[in-house]
Design a protein that fits this description.
Blueprint lengths: L4 E9 L2 E6 L2 E8 H11 L4 E5 L4 H17 L4 E4 L5 H9 L4 E4 L1 H5 L2 H10 L4 E10 L2 E6 L4 E6 H11 L3 E6 L11 H10 L4 E4 L5 H9 L5 E4 L1 H4 L5 H10 L7
Parallel strand pairs: 1-4, 1-12, 4-5, 5-6, 6-7, 7-10, 10-11, 11-12
Antiparallel strand pairs: 1-2, 2-3, 7-8, 8-9
Helix pairs in contact: 1-2
Amino acid sequence: MVAKRIIPCLDVKDGQVVKGINFLGLKEVGDAVEMGRRYSAQGADELVYLDVSATFEGRRTFVDLVSKIASGIDIPFTVGGGIASLDDAARLLDAGADKVSLNSAAIADPSLISRIASRYGSQFVVIAIDARQLDGRWMATTHGGHVPTDRELFSWAQEAQERGAGEILFTSMDHDGTRTGYALEATARLCGILSIPVIASGGAGSIGHIREVLTAGQADAALAASIFHYGQITIPELKRELAAAGIPVRL
């Protein structure tokens, strides 16, 4: 049985990990490279780094940071935020990132998924979908959940898979920052219609929430930020609890 993955998410601004809700009210919580090393040592399966200040100059800084992260950790890591072209993706992958995460750019130009997958392989392409329930339908959004699109979560995820995405990172913007649990029904539905892995994000507040999304939600991986950054849950503690519940994890 394939092991379920635990993935800390690190939002990065000017080389520092920051935390807010929907990218608002950001507070520094630590150094991006040092926190990555710490999570790697604690047993995280992967990391996700999101550049939340992806201006042109910030992009250069982030590429340099990716190189430092790659030399400092020995687990796979994904980078995202402001990737708008094949060249953007190429710079980050060539700097040492294992995968790139696309959101707004993929919605604006879905062919970008195919172009990156054709050059590097599907396993390098993660499509992040930030979705909200609007009039009873799960709809993809951009700009931290503030700008609605006409893309419906499930059909967009299927299209992304068909175009070459190797993984879907689904964040429920209705649950993000609430620490009340993940969107279990939507996650399970997504997993049921896709043949590629689904990473669940948005709402983690306890070990129980992560256990639920990996079982009832059928997610292949659980992503969380605050509960790890502020030490509410440690990764070894989490994995021991999951293993005791019969969930396959790498200890």
